[in-house]
Design a protein that fits this description.
alpha/beta; about 20% strand
Length: about 280
């Protein structure tokens, strides 16, 4: 079997018995039964595309990333992928049979499996690490740098654990937030300089109406409790970045805790940092 643009891949272990016919611009995958639980997949290359040069060879073990696009999408080729109109999540927003024995995938979805990693280790980074990297290295000046303090919500989860490790690799200081004390050692071992249990704080949820001075003041006071404990870790410095992904429950307090960066006539950036005191 050979496609014009894409690859043909099979799994290493037990397979389904069904088959899938492919077109000229698609790659065929043969995946393991256990793969149906995941978005990302793995397999062995069976066929190479006719019309595309590649460094991937027949027999290579590969990991499949979940993003697909039409190939000519400028936003996916140096632009802003979130603005793309053609980008789709493979197997969920496409009908390419990601749960079948054979499935079509694009060449840009393939990454060679690192020889020093297991299949499980190789498969986990294609989604969570890519997401965490994108969040931490955004458009300037919103990019992680050595010495920065980074508050990481959900630090023991998929993208949170990746964020902690990225901070460690860059030389930044990750302060992890977890939901249970049992998770603290795990996050510390990943490289966090400090870990806090969110259950010890009461500053979550929607921002109170600023016209309700009683509730708003109570919220700010509770934010300062968390801010004070963060200061204990950072040496009385606000965090430079908040790795924000839970959403509504954490966004207001995230905005309060992060160090404000604003543009001034001076060529240097200036900072306005709040003091988490009770005053």
């Amino acid at each position: 079997m050979q496609s014009i643009f894409d690859f043909i891949i099979k799994p290493k272990n037990k397979r389904y018995n069904n088959t899938k016919q492919i077109g000229d611009s698609e790659l065929l995958l043969n995946s393991e039964i256990s793969d149906h639980r995941y978005v990302s997949r793995n397999g062995i290359v069976l066929g190479l595309p006719k019309a595309e040069k590649t460094n991937i060879k027949i027999g290579d073990e590969v990991i499949v990333h979940c993003n697909r696009d039409d190939g000519d999408d400028e936003e996916c080729n140096g632009g802003e992928p979130m603005y793309s109109k053609s980008q789709r999540i493979y197997g969920y927003e496409t009908n390419d049979g990601s749960f079948a024995q054979f499935t079509t995938v694009q060449s840009r979805q393939l990454l060679k499996k690192p020889v020093h990693l297991s299949w499980e280790e190789s498969g986990c980074y294609t989604l969570t690490l890519a997401t965490a990297f994108r969040m931490l290295f955004g458009p300037p000046p919103h990019a992680l740098k050595p010495g920065m303090n980074v508050l990481v919500w959900g630090a023991s989860g998929g993208i949170g654990s990746m964020a902690v490790q990225i901070c460690k690799a860059v030389g930044a200081n990750a302060i992890g937030i977890v939901s249970d004390d049992d998770k603290i050692p795990f996050v510390q071992n990943l490289g966090a300089v400090g870990v806090l249990n969110r259950k010890n704080y009461d500053c979550f949820g929607q921002l109170p109406d600023v016209k309700d001075q009683s509730e708003y003041s109570k919220f700010i006071k509770n934010c300062r409790v968390l801010g004070k404990d963060i200061w204990e870790i950072t040496g009385k410095k606000d965090v430079d970045i908040v790795f924000e992904h839970p959403g509504e429950s954490t966004f207001p307090v995230s905005c309060y805790l992060v160090c404000l960066l604003y543009t001034s006539p001076s060529p240097r950036d200036k900072r306005q940092c709040r003091m988490p005191s009770s005053a």
